[in-house]
Give the backbone structure.
Amino acid sequence: AAGVIQSPRHLIKEKRETATLKCYPIPRHDTVYWYQQGPGQDPQFLISFYEKMQSDKGSIPDRFSAQQFSDYHSELNMSSLELGDSALYFCASSLRIAGLYNEQFFGPGTRLTVL
Amino acid sequence: QQPVQSPQAVILREGEDAVINCSSSKALYSVHWYRQKHGEAPVFLMILLKGGEQKGHEKISASFNEKKQQSSLYLTASQLSYSGTYFCGTEPKRGGTSYGKLTFGQGTILTVHP
């Protein structure tokens, strides 16, 4: 079965640079979520999109922005990178049925290292 | 508010059972359970949407006490492959509408030895 695809899998950036992470949800899934996970920590919700509209927002810095495109893929744009942005970034997708958000399936993640 | 998981760590021998608890201070819409191995993505185990609902998947099952805002994950006859960090993700009730946003507990590290 098709899974969530994320690219790139690894990314190394310098401080103050920008980064773009991409997510391709499972086909027919209409909702995308972004999570940030630091070493030894739980995933922290950043932002989500339903049918290309932002549906909820969490602890996402103002330096980050995201969007979902017409083909349902999503991109997380990160600017003015800081050392503390180094983490695993997961994208997850789900299918909303009858107003309910169902199980979220996670992609393999993008490991971002800021030097 | 982050749900609280207990215990923080469990060590088992193959074939033993374990229970992991997840407790929230907020009224919950749903509880999701995931298992994550080091450096990998969280893998979905199950979702509980209604109070008292119990779901099962082979030797892994879960319950959800809506009144107490608590969920428990039951692992029976553990296998080596069960090792990993288990997270509960909770979605608080907000006006009867689901937004899908999950807040994860701090995780429970489960280690199964031969």
